[in-house]
Amino acid sequence: MIQIEVKKFQELSLDQLYAVLQLRSEVFVVEQDCVYQDLDGKDHKALHVMGIKDNKVVAYTRIFKSGDYFEQASIGRVVVKASERKFGYGMDIMNASIAAVEHYFKETTIHISAQCYLLQFYNSLGFNAVGGEYLEDGIPHVAMVRKK
C-alpha cells in the first residue's frame, strides 16, 4: 500500500524533489529510451502527487488547474517505478490524482496526453480518446478527456 502526499512545488523537500526527478528520469528517459526535456519549467505551477512506500517515492503525477498546461485541468508525468507496478499503484496514483484535481481545483473535466499502449488503463478510469494518435517525444500518444 502506498501513502499519498500532495504538495506544491515550494513544499517539496530537496529529498522529495530529487526522488521525483530521479523516478521520472529512470522511467521516461532510461527505461523508455527517450531523450526529451523533462525539466520543462512547469513543475512550479503544478501540484505534485506522490505515492510513497517505505519512505520512497514509487509513484507520481503532477496536476494542473485549467489553463496552466491545457485548456482543462490535467494530469501528467504519470509514473510508477518498474519494480512496483505489479501492486496496482498506477491505479492508486491516478485515482488520488483525479480526487486531487476535484478537491484542490474544484474541476471535474480532466485532460491527459496518454501513451497509446495505456489506452485501456485510462479508459478504465473514465478517460476517453479525443482525436487521433500523435507522436510526443517519439512515442505514440493520444489525447484523452475525463468528464464527470
Describe the structure in your own words.
This protein is of the alpha+beta class. The protein has a single domain, classed as Aminopeptidase. It is built from 3 helices and 7 strands; from the N terminus they run E-H-E-E-E-H-E-H-E-E. The chain has helices at residues 14-31, 89-105, 119-123; strands at 3-8, 47-53, 56-64, 73-80, 110-115, 128-136, 139-146. It has a 7-stranded mixed β-sheet, sandwiched between helices. It is globular, with a radius of gyration of 14 Å. The mean pLDDT is 96.
Portion of residues in helices? 25-40%
Overall geometry comes to globular
Classify the beta-strand content into a percent band. Answer: 35-45%
Strands of the largest sheet, in order across it? 1-2-3-4-5-7-6
Integer tally of domains: 1
- Assign the CATH class: Alpha Beta
Label this structure with key terms:
seven-stranded mixed beta sheet; 148 residues; Aminopeptidase; alpha+beta; 7 strands; 27% helix; 3 helices
Quick recap:
The chain has helices at residues 14-31, 89-105, 119-123; strands at 3-8, 47-53, 56-64, 73-80, 110-115, 128-136, 139-146.
SSE diagram, text form:
Elements: E1 3-8, H1 14-31, E2 47-53, E3 56-64, E4 73-80, H2 89-105, E5 110-115, H3 119-123, E6 128-136, E7 139-146
Parallel strand pairs: 4-5
Antiparallel strand pairs: 1-2, 2-3, 3-4, 5-7, 6-7
